[in-house]
Amino acid sequence: AIAIAIATNKCATMPSSSEEADAEASRVNIFLHAENTRIFSNDHLDRRLPVTLVTGHLGSGKTTLLKHILTNRSNLRIAAAINDFAELNIDEKLVKNVADGAERVVELSNGCVCCHLLDDLKEAVFKLLEKGGAVDTDEVNYLLVETSGVTDPMSVIRTLDAKFGKTFRARLDAVVTVIDSDQFLHSPPSLEAIAQLRAADIVLMNKVDLLQSNGADLDLVEGRIRSYNPTAEVYRTVRSNIPLHKILDVSPADAESAGGDAVIPISHERTKVPLYVSSVGGALRGEGSSSISGSNSSSHSQKKLSGYSSISVTLDDRPLNLAKLEKFITSARVQKLARMKGVLWIHGMDSHRCVLHLSGRGRLGFEQDGKWSGPPKSELAFIGPNVDAELEKEFA
Fold first, then answer.
1. pLDDT digits over 111-137, tens only?
2. Digit-coded pLDDT (tens) for 219-235
3. Can you tell me the distance from the alpha carbon of 31 to that of 16, in angstroms, rounded to the nearest whole number?
């Protein structure tokens, strides 16, 4: 309509050369205004939600890492999307216990996040972004996505890297893969563990305290990691303890950055060491990230990875007898499981809940983990290659 109006005006009045010059200048100014509006618009309107993907084999320390991040998040407001292979999302229950009202814990359903749960992940991210069509940085300014231990993360990476669809307003800052160093030293990695390593920008070589202190085993494990992924950053950790700026695209406030323009504060909360989120991202992505995310090949779509199955047990009518529980968890049948984890109601410890887990080479962990926020009950998940209902009967 504008083009027609200009053409009609030219035919009717035949303006002078100076008038034509003025009209041309006006059109140029219109275009310049549009470009300036796009280029110099408020940054928060275009900021994408930063995402860190946490992956790793069963029992490697992924949930411990999430708890570490949520506990030491400084001024960041973090949302966590947690997927668990087991029917009961035990990890979500553990992480939710340390999150306060500023965070959301988005619980995904049973299964593997890279296949039929992919739509759930898209929906979870979309809900965080839907308010006003942009990221509400006063509500959420970082998202953690934890995959299950039997996930090939390639499809998840492609989803978070997508330039269109429900996750286009999210940016993938880094893929963090956590490994159990002791298990990695003594057992060949599974197919999904190899896929997780190859997709990593950052590898946490966790549980190094279980290896020999002379350093030979540590170097051997790191060498094996680099044989699968020579470009990833590798950090040696105990209980997934690592400074947040090593795994999140954030900068701690210091004398240099606090007074400069390189970082943008994302919160007005007063803390001793505030963290600033990068406005553009990309600093933590590895050299192979672009080719990985753009690849059309996926080992998950070509073969079944582990053949694991899971069952879950819930008992809410009575507390567990500690002696009977000890006999059960030390049995040969349980020791063959790939993973066992749960929150338990133990007789004599009615006010405190207990956390039980089995990982690695049959290592058992048992500890108190705060008070019950509701009626006490026992929930335990078993994951392994041949898990059946007989195991549930033995436990109950």
1. 555 555 677 788 877 777 765 444 555
2. 999 999 999 999 999 99
3. 23
